[in-house]
Amino acid sequence: MSVLEILTYPDKFLREPTKPVEDIDSRIQKIIDDMAETMYDAPGAGLAAIQAGYDNSIIVYDGLPGEVKQSLQVLLNPKIIETEGEIISENEGCLSVPDLRADVKRPALVLVEGFDREGKPLRFEVEGHLAVVLQHEIDHLNGILFIEHISALKRELYKRSIKKKLKRK
Ligand code: NI
Predict the structure, then answer these.
(1) Could you say which of 9, 11, 30, 129 is the most buried, measured as most Cβ atoms within 10 Å of its Cβ?
(2) One CATH from 3.90.45.10, 3.40.50.960, 2.60.40.1220, 3.90.1150.10 for 12-168
(3) Catalytic site residue 137?
C-alpha cells in the first residue's frame, strides 16, 4: 500500500465528475487500499478517489469517529437517496481545502445506497457525524467541495488567501 498525494484547491481535477465503477478488478482494489492508507496517514475522516487523482466513484471513511483504524468503510458508486432534518456540521474541514474550517448546514439523516468492495449492494441510514462525512465525500464524487456550502463572503476570503499563498511560491 502507498500513501497517495492529495490534490488541493484550486486543482481543477477536483471539479471533475467521477465515473461509476463497473468492474471491481485488481486496479480498483489497489486504489481502495491506497486510499485507506492515505486517509489514515493524513489523518482524515474520509477520502474520495478524486482527491487522490482517480476519477472513479469510490469513497473510504472510518465508521467509528475518533478511533483510528477501527472500522474502515468502503463505498463504490454511493448515492444519497433521501435526506431528513437539518444539523450544523461544526468546524467542517477537508484535506483538499487546507487551512479552512467552517460550519456547514446539512441534512441530519441520509439514506445511502452503494456497493462494498466485493460488489455487494448496500443500503443504510446514518445520522450525525457519519451522515456529514458521507455527504461530504459523496459531494466530492460530484465535483463539489464543502466551500460551496459556506457563505459567499467566507468563500471569497478563502479564495483570496489561497491566491496570495500561490503568488508567494
Ligand atoms: Ni473533503
Answers:
(1) 9
(2) 3.90.45.10
(3) yes
